[in-house]
Amino acid sequence: MRYYIIAGEASGDLHASNLIKELKQRDISAEFRCWGGDLMSAQGAHLVKHYRDLAFMGFTEVVMNLRTILKNIEICKQDILTNKPDVIILVDYPGFNLRIADFAKKRGFKVFYYISPQIWAWKQSRVHKIKKIVDKMFVILPFEKDFYGKFDYNVDFVGHPLLDAVSGQTLNSTDWKITTSKPVIALLPGSRKQEITTMLPIFLSIKKYYPNHQFVIAGAPSQTIEFYQTFINDNDVKIVYNQTYQLLQRSEAALVTSGTATLETALFGVPEVVCYKGGAISYLIARQLIKVKFISLVNLIMDKEIVKELIQSELNEKNLKAELDKLLEPASRKRLLADYAVLKEKLGGSGASAKAAELMLSYLQR
Length: 366
Description:
By secondary structure, the chain is an alpha/beta fold. It contains 17 helices and 13 strands. It has 2 domains: 175 residues, 3-Layer(aba) Sandwich (Rossmann fold), CATH 3.40.50; 163 residues, Glycogen Phosphorylase B (Rossmann fold, 3-Layer(aba) Sandwich).
């Protein structure tokens, strides 16, 4: 069977690569063509375009790069028509993927969606369009099935694939390159150049208050070490690539840009401050449209603030230091770890990628 999979960022590349692995085990004739990243390519998928060429963040940034985005959409449409896959599997990335779903459905292609767009946060009216253009939706957050159910759309909850990715990690990895006797503070400033440029200087601004800690940056595969070094004023800040999980396993606390990394950090049991700062116009528009109380997946799943969120003007040196100080207190850490245990239970157990693969094949074979 021929699969065409589209992921537009690092987290999508991770989850799509695990899905490909599970599909290959169940379909020995499987062929994969994809838009994604190195992890999908490593699983044997033919990579049409890398996500580093697709990631644009915020309303104003999207408008500024609209010509490039529209060109990529046309390239994708033509590639689908040329290769005629048996099924198109879309992974999150709604601005791009919903356009492709609409196009593909009108031309008779089977369309699956793995990892729902966060339409419960904003643009809930998109549900009506999704019902028309997506044959099967596979969701990974426990509240999403009920959300779609309110619109009479039956979706499959498969559990969160991060549980599998995290459980498969071992602490004594030979890949780990950092040697330090100091406790580690992990810095996860995101994967896009725009967000790293905004977030990393703020993260590094508090380093001077913690001379007895080692600050380590989780480098995004799509960014060069030279890019990161433009923000580092001394040699005491370290950078690791492709070792985010090993970094979290060794960290006492973490400063994390809002996104999938907030959930990954929680699943490793690392106390964290969730941070976000975007362009002023983008933020004002988003604040008018977003319908949820929190920006981090951790708090959304728990339906309460268990990790501190510093957003926009609240994200500054003074507040960031104050919150990190709290995380380093034993009592705060104990309370947070208890909440993290509840979070894992809510996520539905392991085997998300396998469940998704089995369901997809069962639908395709009917």
